[in-house]
Design goal:
The protein is an alpha+beta fold. Helix content is 55%, strand content 29%. Strands 1, 2, 3, 4, 5 and 6 form a six-stranded antiparallel beta sheet that branches. Helix 2 packs across helix 3. The longest helix has 43 residues. It is elongated, with a radius of gyration of 24 Å.
């Protein structure tokens, strides 16, 4: 009887320790995933000093077209543009534009390769480098 009680206590202690170990591992995974999501969002987003949402969206459309994307959908009210680039692969990019602060627009791009989200920074860097040049040129054409 004493042996079965000791065994039960030992088994309970092992289960309790393993539960706390799993919880710590889960917490670490969540923190790592959160950090990688913040990093991903960092290279998916840029702020631009403008208050003209429509002009920003038109510049996004022309930038996507310059990069070889075919525009699938554009909604000025929602501030969303989607385009697909074909060429041995199917890259789809959806870009949203929304006011962030006074005189600022936040542009956020999300890319998908087939059905998989793109986490590589390169397509985003290419898009935003081109968009920054276009935004600069557009702003200076109006002066």
């Amino acid at each position: 009887m004493k042996m079965s009680r000791c065994l039960a206590l030992l088994l309970g202690a092992v289960m309790l320790v393993s539960m706390f170990g799993c919880q710590a591992a889960s917490r670490n995974q969540i923190m790592a995933a959160s950090a990688s999501q913040v990093e991903l969002r960092n290279y998916q987003s840029r702020r631009f000093e403008t208050e003209n949402k429509e002009k920003t969206l038109r510049t996004v459309i022309s930038t996507l077209q310059d990069l070889g994307f075919i525009i699938d959908k554009a909604d000025m009210v929602l501030g969303s543009v989607s385009g697909t680039k074909l060429g041995g692969y199917s890259l789809r990019m959806t870009v949203t534009v929304r006011p962030k602060a006074q005189n600022q627009m936040l542009v956020r791009a999300n890319a998908q390769y087939n059905i998989t989200a793109v986490e590589d920074p390169e397509p985003y860097q290419q898009f935003f480098a081109s968009l920054e040049k276009s935004m600069f040129l557009t702003a200076h054409m109006d002066e």
